[in-house]
């Protein structure tokens, strides 16, 4: 039984009010894989990189026990590159460079050893690639979580609607929930989106936390109030990785476990933003995670 | 022992995507007083209205057992009037008309029967009026809660800083916390503001809930996700009234009770926005409030 994550592995160059980086390792599958690796030990990635990615960078993943057999290395190819600059509020950013490179022709291949997949995270990608990955699994996973973004709603809405019919959980942000549903109220938006296929919807609200809808219930998780958000890149992917990693660990999908999974995803995301890129996610301890879970408990607990 | 609320009693004319009203009763003290009246039975208002306010409108307050001996009626005067139009997102609004009328010369008088005040809410008003009200009490109340807004930070910052030194709890929204502190991070903003005097700070985030800071702790309360926000006018005042009303009821000020008070304030505010003006706050039952408190519990509870 394994957790398979399909998504980008990339180079990012980042500029925030706290500083800037040269090309560092990023990508949705990288963040999600690292996060999931703290909760579950059979994490397998499907992605594509260029020859420029190199062994040292791949070791960031393998050092955490992540299986990279499904990460195709294209000879002579260049790795997907994204560069962005965050504004002072850290909630908005400008994309400076997007070079798709080998990601442009990404055709996800499932190694035979990945066919034991029971938990599948389809990271933010062209919906057609998400559909292909799902179709190439011999049996439907126990749980499929899909992340997407406004861009695909703009340019590939029909494909997105097709894949939505086949997933169990959708994670998007509040603006995207409003765009996808045409409803401003997030309660109404959730109703519309749950009618599109997913059994559960997670609406990510950045510094305001996340809402989980499903089984006729709602759960609201805060984000941890932080003195400094150093670099928000990858926070959403980290959340998704922690979320599905927790569910793979507890092996049971219901609203109660989903709520805990949201808290674990939020805790890991709160670490992600403390340093540039994946830096903070490379060396967490079990105690680090436990400390933060306790902070979420004390942040939200009341006794009426 | 009583709870005294100083603030405006007003006429509002509102326009929202759901409809519009003629002049209806509004004002910070009105919303706060009605909310508090569901939790505590000795609520006393200090305000000023014109002769146009009339007995029927005053009965909205007295019907809930609220003492209006401190509501001065100015012969021949006109009641404060505000008119506003909400945009589709309900988070932003345009002020169409502001006629201060008798509020322009509001000089708060404390009836002798109000000198038993142990809980004092200074609603959003000129800071000088808040200072005067506080000074005219014979003894310092057990708890002073102050609400204010960005306008007073722009035009009366020094007076505001003076009154902040004398209060226990400040309630403002996130943009105001950032303006008052000069810090974007709400954690850093809270540190700066708590250094200005208050022992506790509540940052109201509208549909994203509220944060409570104090005693070195943080508490995050969500807002109830609602399908329709009919009219947000008065939600913040209702929150403040429910907050202090709960504390007056339990008669003990500490972080544990403050957290519950935030939940009660949020529950009452969630009713406030369901209808125009004070309409929904005029006829709540104990069961209505209990039902909503249970919704907040199920919305936030997880068990890791």
UniProtKB/TrEMBL annotation, chains A, B:
Keywords: Kinase, Transferase. The keyword Chaperone does not apply. InterPro entries: Carboh/pur_kinase_PfkB_CS, PfkB_dom, Ribokinase-like. GO terms for cellular component: cytosol. It holds the Pfam family PfkB. Residues 20-279 form the Carbohydrate kinase PfkB domain. SUPFAM superfamilies: Ribokinase-like (SSF53613). PROSITE patterns: PFKB_KINASES_2. GO terms for molecular function: kinase activity. Signal peptide: none annotated. Gene3D superfamilies: 3.40.1190.20. The keyword Cell division does not apply. It comes from the Bacteria. This is Sugar/nucleoside kinase (Ribokinase family). It comes from Sphingobacterium allocomposti.
């Amino acid at each position: 039984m394994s957790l398979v994550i399909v998504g980008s592995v990339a180079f990012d160059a980042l500029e925030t009010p706290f500083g800037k980086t040269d090309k560092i390792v990023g990508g949705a599958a990288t963040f999600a894989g690292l996060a999931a690796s703290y909760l579950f030990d059979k994490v397998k990635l499907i992605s594509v990189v260029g020859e420029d990615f190199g062994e040292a960078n791949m070791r960031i993943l393998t050092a955490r026990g992540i299986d990279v057999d499904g990460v195709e290395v294209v000879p002579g190819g260049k790795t997907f590159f994204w560069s962005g600059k965050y504004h002072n509020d850290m909630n908005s950013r400008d994309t400076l460079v997007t070079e798709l490179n080998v990601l442009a022709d990404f055709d996800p291949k499932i190694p035979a050893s990945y066919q034991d997949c029971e938990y599948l995270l389809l990271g933010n990608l062209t919906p057609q690639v998400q559909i292909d990955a799902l179709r190439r699994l011999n049996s439907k996973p126990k749980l499929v979580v899909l992340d997407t973004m406004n861009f695909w709603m703009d340019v590939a809405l029909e494909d997105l609607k097709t894949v939505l019919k086949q997933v169990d959980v959708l994670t998007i942000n509040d603006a995207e929930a409003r765009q996808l549903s045409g409803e401003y109220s997030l309660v109404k938006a959730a109703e519309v989106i749950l009618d599109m296929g997913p059994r559960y919807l997670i609406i990510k609200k950045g510094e305001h936390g996340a809402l989980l809808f499903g089984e006729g219930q709602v759960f609201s998780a805060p984000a941890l109030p932080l003195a400094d958000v150093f670099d928000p890149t990858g926070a959403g992917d980290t959340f998704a990785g922690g979320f599905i990693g927790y569910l793979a660990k507890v092996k049971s999908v219901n609203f109660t476990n989903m709520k805990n999974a949201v808290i674990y995803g939020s805790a890991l995301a709160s670490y992600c933003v403390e340093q540039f890129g994946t830096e903070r996610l490379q060396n967490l301890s079990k105690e680090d995670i436990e400390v933060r879970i306790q902070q979420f408990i004390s942040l939200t607990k009341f006794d009426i």
